[in-house]
Design brief:
Strand content: under 5%
Helix content: 55-70%
Number of strands: 2
CATH topology of one domain: Serine Threonine Protein Phosphatase 5, Tetratricopeptide repeat
CATH class of one domain: Mainly Alpha
Strand order of the largest sheet: 1-2
CATH superfamily of one domain: Tetratricopeptide repeat domain
Distance between the termini: 85 Å
CATH architecture of one domain: Alpha Horseshoe
Radius of gyration: 32 Å
Number of helices: 33
Shape: elongated
Largest sheet: 2 strands, antiparallel
């Protein structure tokens, strides 16, 4: 009996261990898929873990993260509610739920969740910034300012933090303190166009036009790209009868934001005033296509059409005005004139009678309440009437901008390279049957080894080199899992066939199972595979390393994301194995330009920029049309201060189809 009990216990331990290993692997592969933005696939892996072990918190949190990235906010909310209901001590669950509440307009609940999370990690800057954003959205500027002061005490007088402080002070109508903060920004950075623009706005609202114009000139001289600065300077120039200068500023504002209604309205006003009626009408028509109920524009269009003799259009527009503002006497007078021009005397006399009644009763208290007018003067990008909403008129607001990336840059995402940099190194190349259909160019490179591989396995799949991978749909996920099973059955019958291991490795890579893919490429190599297998194993190890480093950053950033440091020594063995595979790839196939490229990217991650440049140069020497290599070499030159060489490479990369190169060239030219 004891033997039977022991045997049952032993078997239970084996099956428990197997289940543990399976769920650990599923979590690992799901995390791989999440990291490389294959969110649909990641959810499938987390579903399997939850089905096997519904008591675990991690798969719910990770699945919620994937749903958030797919903008399934309510589905993510369900997952996080489950976690928090059974475990109230996971700060990241509160952070994620707070992020969702911010997204769906429940900022009060968001602030509560961030506050709960801060109980566990009181110094977490990410959580404090998130709560500032929630307070900002609720117009709780005192609370936002308190949190922001904490951040300033922690990180010092950083310009972006000071700009937020000035904005909150303005929203609290403390213009004196706001000006002091703005002056501090200017002392730190006298070329800060946003600070000069903020200062100009304050003096514009205070009706000190000369000072406002001086500061707007400073903002624009220092490279402002905020349309509001040009709109407001245009208003000031118009006051000084500098119509040419005002029109030029409105043109610039519209070139920055083509559908800016304030700029279109103001430009139409000036054009009408100087007699350019047809162009004024074009601006007003365009504005009203964008915002059909902009009544000031409707009224001004009626005035322009009256001068142009378009009386039917006048009647149509004024009728809309009267429906909205039935006590606006000027509207009846204009419509009466239009009816008279059209010969509709009955309508003319009706409007005249209404006008007379309004004028007779204009002093009565009842009609005084309803006395209505429309302001047709030029609009500034901020007025005293809206001074409780200063924030929307500033060109730089780090808290608002941060919301776009708050979740992508959190400790789960863990991206390791240039998190907040707009332009990054082009990704490493891998083999895949899929390529994004919306890219403007396709890498074309004749490579005999790949062509031969595709010829041998044309019934299975045709592979190509890509560095922008496609996230798999449900149908493709199921297809590739089936492919893995089918190939496994073939391998059972033919264990020496390197192509079968290679193809299964590709399929495992597509479902983000890097460990299985590496094992398959290793088996392919043992059975005589060529340089392609070494290349694929290296690229899988490189992707796996990225996830590992991201995991380390996640661990380090739980309490303070800004201070995360990754020690290269911790992963020295991983780097060595990847370099060894690329070296073997190049030894077997010296013209393998993608191996040189991937190797160069790896060197960049180690900050060995000179060696990286040498590797990019080798890739370009093999393939002179290798746009990604030019682009990455350009960035590497710029990293080490050789801008002239970097600019030349950017120009070539742009010529070959990488459009981001032109954006960076423009920035470097400033």
């Amino acid at each position: 009996m004891k033997k039977h009990i022991f045997l049952i216990f032993f078997l239970f331990q084996i099956f428990s261990l197997k289940a543990q290993l399976n769920t650990d692997k599923l979590m690992s592969v799901g995390t791989n898929a999440y990291h490389f933005k294959d969110y649909v696939l990641a959810i499938q892996y987390f579903n399997q873990v939850i089905k096997a072990k519904p008591f675990l918190d991690a798969p719910y949190i990770m699945r919620a993260g994937a749903k958030i990235m797919l903008e399934d906010y309510y589905g993510a909310l369900d997952d996080l509610n489950i976690v928090i209901a059974r475990n109230e001590f996971i700060p990241y669950a509160y952070y994620s739920r707070g992020f969702i509440y911010n997204k769906i307009g429940k900022e009060d609940l968001a602030a509560q969740d961030f506050t709960r999370a801060l109980v566990f990690v009181p110094d977490n800057s990410m959580l404090i910034f998130s709560r500032i954003f929630a307070y900002d959205k609720q117009k709780k500027f005192d609370e936002a300012l308190t949190d922001l002061e904490l951040m300033i005490s922690k990180f010092g007088q950083k310009v972006d933090l000071l700009q937020e402080k000035s904005r909150f002070l303005l929203n609290l109508n403390d213009t004196i303190s706001a000006l002091n903060v703005i002056d501090t920004i200017i002392k730190i950075d006298s070329t800060n166009s946003a600070a000069w623009g903020q200062k100009g706005l304050i003096y514009l609202v205070k009706n000190e036009s000369d000072k406002a114009l001086e500061y707007y000139n400073k903002a624009i001289e220092n490279g402002s790209k905020f349309e509001g600065d040009f709109i407001n300077r245009g208003v000031l120039l118009k006051e000084k009868k500098d119509y040419r200068g005002a029109l030029a500023d409105y043109d610039k504002a519209i070139s920055i934001v083509p559908n800016d209604t304030l700029a279109l309205f103001n430009r139409a006003n000036i054009r009408a005033e100087i007699g350019d009626l047809n162009n004024a009408l074009i601006d007003l028509n365009r504005l009203l296509e964008i915002q059909p109920n902009y009544y000031e524009a409707i009224y001004n269009r009626s005035l322009v059409n009256m001068q142009l003799g378009n009386f039917k259009d006048v009647v149509a527009d004024i009728s809309k005005i009267i429906k909205k503002y039935p006590y606006f006497s000027d509207a009846y007078e204009i419509r009466a004139m239009a009816y008279e021009k059209l010969g509709n005397m009955k309508a003319f006399w009706n409007d005249k009678q209404t006008l007379n009644n309004l004028q007779r009763n204009k002093n009565k208290e009842e009609n005084n309440k309803n006395n209505q007018e429309i302001d047709t003067k030029e609009k500034v990008a901020q007025t005293k009437k809206s001074e409780n909403n200063w924030s929307k008129f500033f060109s730089t607001t780090s808290i608002k901008d941060a919301d776009k990336n708050l979740f992508e840059n959190n400790i789960l995402r863990g991206e390791i390279q240039n998190r907040n940099v707009e332009i990054e190194l082009q990704n490493l190349f891998v083999l895949s049957p899929y390529q994004k259909s919306d890219i403007v160019r396709e890498v074309r490179f004749f490579f005999s080894l790949l062509n031969e591989m595709n010829r041998r396995n044309q019934k299975e799949m045709s592979l190509r080199f890509v560095n922008e991978e496609v996230a798999l749909t449900d149908a493709l996920i199921n297809y590739h899992f089936k492919m893995i099973n089918d190939i496994s059955e073939k391998i059972d019958k033919d264990r020496k066939n390197s192509d079968l291991y290679f193809l299964r490795g590709i399929n495992n890579a597509l479902v983000q199972d890097f460990n299985s893919a590496i094992e398959d490429f290793s088996a392919a190599i043992l059975n005589g595979a060529d340089a392609l297998a070494y290349f694929c194993r290296a690229s899988m190890r490189q992707k796996q390393l990225e996830v590992s480093i991201a995991g380390l950053i996640a661990e380090q950033t739980k309490n303070e994301p800004q201070n995360a440091i990754v020690a290269d020594k911790k992963f020295s063995r991983d780097y060595e194995m990847i370099f060894r595979d690329y070296d073997k790839t190049i030894e077997l196939s010296p013209d393998f330009c993608f191996a040189w490229f991937n190797r160069a990217n790896l060197l960049c991650s180690l900050k060995d920029y000179k060696s990286a440049i040498s590797n990019f140069s080798n890739a370009i020497a093999i393939n002179p049309d290798f746009a990604e290599a030019y682009f990455n070499r350009a960035l590497t030159y710029i990293y080490i201060g050789e801008n002239e060489k970097g600019i030349a490479d950017l120009s070539k990369a742009g010529e070959l189809g990488i459009y981001q190169a032109y954006n960076l060239l423009k920035k470097l030219a400033k």
